[in-house]
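Justification of computing resources. Each target in the renewal requires a structure prediction run like the one illustrated here; the chain below, 470 residues long, is used simply to show the kind of job we budget for.
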Amino acid sequence: MSRTTTRSPQDSPEAGQNSESVLSHGLKQRHLSMIALGGVIGAGLFVGSGVGIAAAGPAIVLLFMGTGALVMLIMRMLGEMSAARPSTGSFSVHAEEEIGSWAGTTSGWMYWLMLCAGVAAEATAAGTIMHSWVSFIPAYGWVALFMVFFCASNLTAVKNFGEFEFWFSAIKVAAIVAFLVLGVLGILGVFGSAPGTSHLTGHGGFFPTGVAGLAAGLLTTISGFAGLETVTIAAAESDDPSRNVARAVRTAVWRIAVFYIGSMAVVVTLVPWNNPKVATDGPYVTVLDQLGIPAAGTIMQIVVLVALLSAMNANIYGSSRMAYSLVNRGQGPRFLGKVTRGVPAAAVLASCVFGFAAVIAGIVWPTTVFAWLLNIAGCSVLVVWSIVCLTQLKMRRRLEREAPELLSVRMWGFPYLTWLTLAGILGVFAVMAASADGRHQLVGTAVVVAVLAGAGHLKQRRDRRAADSA
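Resulting structure tokens:
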């Protein structure tokens, strides 16, 4: 059945709420542009990509080209939907409207779980870096300090989140640009003899580990892009949501591809893929050491720390807004909907508490509870992206019939590229199912998805009965 109801950018708060219960609009275009650009440039690129290189060799460039294309298509779909119907709940709201409550509940809470698990992982890694510099404070002490600081900053005006992310992202982008410039100079022989194609064709060739290596590297590259959706959540709190998210998506898509693919091409051209330092120290540190850049390790540790803190900040923000949106739609405990001075304070606190509890689980049960949580979080982004594809297919057709003027951003090659993207995601699931570790992740994720979808389906049935009896 066609739905013609439109929502406000704040997900239609309940009647009777005053202006203090509505989120503020403190984000500017420059904030959204940097959030879109820097939101997916995290520790996964600076450090985690080394694991992918060690698994796949120089062919990691092709994997990043493939996953980068997938991510660009997903981001374009999100841009189309968010520009037409900006909402704090972003894809979760759209999924509920187009598919049903079960889809909104599943995608929303899976995304919340992923972000909160990310907060725990990033806080732990940041605490470890700080402990290596200031050893008299234990790593968990630094974790607590970071959690308190970013929780407090997210409890204040949303413009504070925007400013933090703007400067964090600016540092990350500047580091990537500097690395690419130095890398190109190194390839040209400015810092010594030019390597040519020796590292691309030697050491076992371009595909040294075969299909198994490509499969292992694929999972690493996919997880490195998680978090790009935050910009469509943040857009609802900007001064002009539709225009701002459209501009942010358009400017970010090709730059993300250049940064990721360009960085990997530089790395595998300048250093052997099987250099053990690529996985242990990180590909960026290894390349800078190879080029003779002084204090390369310290420089990259600072950049990685900034990337981790940026991701923490963005994940606390994104998870709190998603929880707020879900609760406003009757899909969670009502107390999380409390808004104080334009900020969903209860949702911020809940996300931080869950994240800190996950940190404690990582200390007490690192190989059981924490490992299970991270595995579920790793699959969550694929579940979310699948629902995004299905939602965009329905929403695009409805908008073309009912409100074509809202399509300021259009998905390329619709509907063929949308179906191709969905097929690509299903292909990743198939690759995961081929390995024992991947199957464990899929089983755990399937259980969580079944529980959330079941809860959403029950709510959908209750709503339908209430509407029929009205």
